[in-house]
Amino acid sequence: MAKQLKITWTKSTIGQPETQRRTIRSLGLRKLHHTVIKEDTPQLRGQINKVKHLVTVEEID
Question: At what angle are helices 42-50 and 18-26 packed, to 10 degrees?
Fold first, then answer.
């Protein structure tokens, strides 16, 4: 079974560039402290790396 990542939006995007706001939306996060579970892929890791200062990530099995 593939690894999954639990992504939680923890910090506001106020004052952040528009590209980071769009990345948060593309991850499926809608509100602050919202959590989503996604399959671990290289593309997802790249998106998380772009907004790593705004989210927390946990690996789950």
Answer: 140
pLDDT digits 0-9 by tens, 34-57: 999 999 999 999 999 999 999 999
Which regions of 1-61 does DSSP assign to beta strands (E)?
4-9, 35-39, 55-60
Closest CA to 26 of 12, 40, 10, 38: 38
CA angle (8, 11, 16) in 5-degree steps: 120
| pTM of the predicted protein model | 0.92
Hey, where are the domains in the chain? 4-60
Homologous superfamily (CATH) for 4-60:
Ribosomal protein L30/L7 (3.30.1390.20)
Q: For residue 61, what pLDDT is reported?
A: 81
Phi and psi angles of residue 58, each rounded to the nearest 5 degrees, phi first: -125, 140
